[in-house]
Write a structure and sequence with these properties.
The chain is 67% helix and 3% strand. It is globular.
């Protein structure tokens, strides 16, 4: 087994997983369907939380007991959590700028590569974290600032390399469109080939470096945007992913006890052989995805990063069918 889901708390752990999965899907729908929903979720709430976080750390530095015992201060001290929260939120804001064509930047052609840039940054944050464990504790363990025991070894290296390859698997950087109802930013060339490779890599990352959280952020959080993409929001996976990731990071940062101490908490088995197996699977999946992309690019005589390589595939065509009709202004631009 990958996780310690058994015993008296198993029913609560499964209920917790189902609740997180369903709530993330629902929150994503609320945030993506209206401009107001997106503004509240990714501008208003993060602004309030930023004030909250700063207040906690200033008070803690001053020795205030309430701040020193605050769950966010005690359980969520790693640089990774804050980097991930704000990088994901920046992605959501940038995607809304493209979707609603806010200002000159939202209408510009060059800004269409923003999704690639912000996703690459998010992946690199995790890759650095994987390599950090390898460097800190090769063949042994180390305890993070949050008191979590992490293992270092080949599994971190294999998955770190898988993450770097995953960045290269993002194709058609400028192939960004808006859906007809203006509810979604679409990236049609980001098909199941990339999504599966990403999900396997990211699950492995959470399993390696967030063993006490992977049940939720490695399974429920990854499956929520993937399910939405495959069943009703074709082409909108990257927007789904950014939305659900930012929303989950906000929740986890404020209510860390849900994952760490409550009856819903789930630990991974923390077995180096299991970690290594998962890492090898993630690496092989990304190598295969990259190889397939290179095969299609060569066959079509296109640059896979500047041009779309999945034209003609079912996923790509279904996403393009949702694309808004171009106006005369768009054509002139």
């Amino acid at each position: 087994m990958l996780f310690q889901v058994y015993g008296d708390t198993a029913v609560y752990q499964w209920i917790g997983w189902i609740l997180v999965f369903c709530c993330l899907i629902g929150a994503n729908e609320l945030a993506r369907r209206t401009k107001t929903g997106g503004i509240v979720a990714f501008l208003v709430v993060p602004s309030i939380l930023t004030v909250y976080f700063i207040t906690i750390y200033v008070a803690a530095a001053a020795g205030a007991e309430w701040a020193l015992t605050n769950p966010t201060y005690v359980h969520m001290t790693s640089w990774f959590h804050y980097a991930k929260l704000y990088a994901a939120t920046a992605g959501c804001i940038g995607f809304m700028a493209l979707k609603y064509k806010w200002g000159a930047i939202g209408k510009s052609e060059w800004f269409k590569c923003f999704p690639f840039v912000i996703v690459a940054i998010n992946i690199l944050i995790a890759v650095v974290s994987d390599f950090e464990s390898a460097i800190r504790a090769w063949g042994t363990t180390w305890v993070s600032t949050e008191g979590v025991t992490l293992m270092g070894g080949w599994h971190n290296v294999f998955n770190g390399v898988a993450g770097l390859i995953n960045i290269a698997c993002m194709t058609g950087w400028f192939g960004i469109y808006v859906s007809k109802k203006k509810q979604d930013m679409l990236w049609p060339d980001m098909t199941w080939v990339f999504i599966v490779a990403y999900d396997l890599w990211n699950f492995c990352y959470t399993y390696n470096c967030l063993p006490t959280h992977a049940w939720y952020c490695g399974l429920a959080l990854l499956l929520a945007p993937t399910v939405a993409n495959f069943f009703w929001n074709k082409g909108g996976w990257i927007q789904n992913r950014a939305n659900t990731l930012a929303i989950w990071c906000m929740f986890a940062q404020v209510f860390p006890a849900f994952q760490d101490e409550s009856r819903f908490a789930v630990q991974s088995v923390n077995n180096p052989n299991v970690n290594l197996t998962v890492s090898v699977i993630a690496l092989v999946a990304n190598v295969l995805a990259f190889g397939y992309i290179m095969y299609r690019a060569k066959k079509q005589h296109v640059n896979p990063w500047l041009q779309e390589v999945f034209t003609g595939t079912k996923d790509f065509e279904q996403a393009m069918a949702r694309r808004e009709d171009l106006t005369r202004e768009d054509l002139a631009a």
